[in-house]
């Protein structure tokens, strides 16, 4: 109520008190509310120069990986490990996998893959083996154990056919993923550049050197 009324009170034109029927009848209380809002405003609104600075520390940026065909990454947590995975190494990851299309529909997550004792089962693959989509392979190569990063993978580096992983184990999710990404009608409509874009939130758990 105070917010609605104070915006009326702060506008240039005088507001007939009858229009401010949401306000309390006490003008003293209204004035106090405005004062509080104004004081709050000074505290909360950052100086303009700060807001326009490109390298503002609280506004992290996606970085495009070199020679990756357009894979973009945003590090959410830097890993504490000392090495990066090399071709031939096996890696264990957890991931949330989403489509950029379909309102960011989540088509798979290792946190839902439970082993016999009910613990989430990591996904394991070999770096540079071609068994996973190229964008995921590229992103994990520059991660260290313990790292978490969001990876945005353009269609050319994502699902090209149904042979590369990660393949959602759930039949319906798998079906929907493939019919979306490989929808001939939509590809013919020129939607191919956006349709197959995938977003992975990846946690690198372990590197097992070959
Ligand atoms: C699937 O796509 C990958 C990446 O483009 C390619 O290396 C592989 O040969 C393809 N497999 C088939 C069966 O088309
Ligand atoms: C392919 O896309 C078209 C157009 O959006 C849609 O009508 C059709 O149902 C889709 N096909 C499949 C198999 O999802």
From TrEMBL:
Its EC number is 5.2.1.8. Pfam families: FKBP_C. The keyword Nucleotidyltransferase does not apply. It is an enzyme of class 5 (isomerase). Residues 88-170 form the PPIase FKBP-type domain. It comes from the Eukaryota. Residues 1-20 form the signal peptide. Keywords: Isomerase, Rotamase, Signal. It catalyses: [protein]-peptidylproline (omega=180) = [protein]-peptidylproline (omega=0). The keyword Chaperone does not apply. PANTHER family: PEPTIDYL-PROLYL CIS-TRANS ISOMERASE FKBP17-1, CHLOROPLASTIC (PTHR47860). This is peptidylprolyl isomerase. It comes from Sphagnum jensenii.
């Amino acid at each position: 109520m105070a917010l609605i009324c104070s915006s009326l009170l702060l506008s240039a034109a005088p507001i007939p008190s009858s229009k401010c029927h949401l306000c309390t009848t006490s003008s003293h209380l209204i004035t106090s509310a405005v004062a509080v809002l104004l004081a709050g405003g000074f505290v909360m609104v950052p100086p303009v120069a700060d807001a326009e600075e490109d390298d503002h520390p609280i506004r992290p940026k996606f970085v495009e990986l070199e020679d990756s065909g357009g894979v973009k990454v945003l590090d959410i947590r830097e890993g504490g490990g000392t090495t990066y995975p090399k071709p031939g190494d096996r890696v264990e990851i957890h991931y949330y996998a989403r489509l950029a299309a379909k309102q960011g529909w989540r088509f798979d997550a290792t946190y839902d893959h439970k082993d016999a004792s009910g613990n989430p089962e990591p996904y394991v693959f070999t770096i540079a083996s071609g068994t996973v989509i190229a964008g995921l392979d590229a992103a994990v190569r520059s991660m260290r154990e313990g790292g978490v990063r969001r990876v945005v993978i353009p269609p050319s580096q994502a699902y090209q056919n149904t042979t590369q992983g990660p393949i959602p184990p759930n039949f319906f999710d798998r079906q929907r993923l493939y019919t979306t990404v490989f929808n001939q009608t939509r590809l013919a409509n020129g939607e191919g550049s956006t349709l197959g874009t995938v977003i992975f939130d990846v946690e690198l758990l372990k590197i097992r050197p070959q």
